[in-house]
Design a protein that fits this description.
single chain, 230 residues, alpha/beta, Metallo-beta-lactamase, Chain A, six-stranded mixed sheet, 6 helices, 14 strands
Length: 230
C-alpha cells in the first residue's frame, strides 16, 4: 500500500495520499492549496490516478486544495452530509463506505469541533481530522462546535475503536505523526475526565485566539475559492 503523510508548516496540517499500489487509483485527505503542485508531482511519480479527495471538515486555518485538485485531475470532491461546502460532488453519511481500487474507508460522523466534522476508518487506522488530536482535541468554540457533541464523538465513537487502531489527525503542533487509541485513552490530558460536563468545562475555558486565516479560509472553503478569487 502507498501511504504518504505530508505536512504543511504554515498551518501544521497533515495531508494523506493513499493508494493500494503504484499505478492504482488514489485518494487524498485534507489537502492544502499551496501544496497542489507537490501532490500532482507525487501522483505522477507513482503513476497514480487521483479519483477522490476528502476534507474531514470545513477548515478555518488554511484554504483547502480539494477544489483545485478536482480542476486538475477531475477527481470527485467528498465531504460529510452536514458540510456547508457549495462545491462538493458527494456528501456522505455516517457509516457510509468510500471506495477506490482495493481501498475502503468508513465515514464516522464526529461533530464537536465543527458540526460537519467526520472521521474516516481504514483498516488499522483512523483519520480523525480535528476531532481527536495527539495528546489533544479540537477546539469547540466556533463553526457550530459543541463540547458535548465532541465528548460523544470522542468517547462513544472514536475511543470505542480497537485500542491498537492508529490515530492520524489533520494537525499536530509538536512534530508527532501518529498515535493509537490506547495511547490517547491513557495519555491525552483532555480525556482524563469522568463526565461530559467535566470535559465541557475544560473546552469552554480554553480562551484560544481565532485562527489567523479564519475570516478568509472559512468562506473560501465553503465557496471553493482561492485567496485571489475572494
Amino acid at each position: 500500500m502507498i501511504f504518504n503523510q505530508l505536512f504543511d508548516d504554515k498551518s501544521s496540517t497533515y495531508t494523506y495520499v493513499i493508494a493500494s499500489g503504484e499505478g492504482r487509483e488514489a485518494l487524498i485527505i485534507d489537502p492544502v492549496i499551496e501544496h497542489t503542485e507537490e501532490y500532482i508531482k507525487l501522483l505522477e511519480n507513482l503513476k497514480l490516478k487521483l479519483v477522490k479527495v476528502i476534507d474531514t471538515h470545513i477548515h478555518a486555518d488554511h484554504i483547502t486544495g480539494l477544489n483545485e485538485l478536482s480542476k486538475r485531475t477531475d477527481c470527485s470532491k467528498i465531504m460529510g452530509e452536514h458540510s456547508k461546502s457549495e462545491v462538493i460532488d458527494l456528501k456522505i453519511k455516517d457509516n457510509e463506505k468510500i471506495e477506490i481500487e482495493k481501498i475502503e474507508l468508513t465515514a464516522i460522523y464526529t461533530p464537536g469541533h465543527t458540526d460537519c466534522s467526520y472521521s474516516y476508518l481504514m483498516n488499522d487506522r483512523v483519520f480523525t481530522g480535528d476531532t481527536l488530536l495527539i495528546n489533544g482535541t479540537g477546539r469547540t468554540d466556533f463553526q457550530n462546535g459543541n463540547s458535548y457533541d465532541a465528548y460523544e464523538s470522542i468517547f462513544n465513537r472514536l475511543l470505542k475503536l480497537p485500542e491498537n487502531t492508529f490515530v492520524y489527525p489533520a494537525h499536530d503542533y509538536n512534530g508527532k505523526k501518529h498515535s493509537t487509541i490506547r495511547d490517547e485513552k491513557n495519555n491525552n490530558p483532555r480525556l482524563q475526565v469522568n463526565s461530559k460536563e467535566e470535559y465541557a468545562e475544560i473546552m469552554n475555558n480554553l480562551k484560544l485566539a481565532n485562527p489567523k486565516m479564519m475570516d478568509v479560509a472559512v468562506p473560501a472553503n465553503i465557496k471553493g475559492l482561492t485567496l485571489k478569487e475572494l
